[in-house]
Amino acid sequence: MKKITIILALVLTVSTSFAFTGPETVNSQTLTTFNSEFVGVTDASWTISKDFYKVTFTMNEQVLSAYYTKAGEFMAVTHNISTVQLSSNLKKSLKKMMSNSWITDLFEVTNYSETSWYVTLETADSKIVLRSDNGGKWTVYQKTEKL
Predict the structure, then answer these.
(1) Is 96 within 8 Å of 112 (Cβ atoms)?
(2) Is 135:90 a contact under the CB 8 Å cutoff?
(3) Of 31 and 8, more confident
(4) What integer is the mean pLDDT of 34-58?
(5) Of 21, 68, 96, 111, which is most buried by a Cβ count within 10 Å?
(6) pLDDT computed for residue 97 by the predictor
(7) Percent of residues, the chain, with pLDDT higher than 70
């Protein structure tokens, strides 16, 4: 559960969290792990941050992002999804929670032990991120007011 929370925090701040440290390259252990877990990928693009590696790639016509520790350990894989890919229970409960808001982001995070879904709902005045762990009910993960 802690890993998923950490991964989400990283994913939600991915656009501002990457601090490049110069000519650092992805280590061979991480490359070996990635190549053994994801066979037949195309367009792999690596990003190096202070604490982890992120690789974005295409596999089976789907764009995925995988995260690895600096020691080469797999953390999680994420991909954007549409509401039709949610279970009927998650769709139904999400529809009840939406009221006058719209979906601006929806993605799935998977590691070896669990799958979580995150959806961002926005109105003119606020932004709320909901999380569902292993298909359970939606809970508020983050809420912000727009200025």
Answers:
(1) no
(2) yes
(3) 31
(4) 95
(5) 68
(6) 86
(7) 84
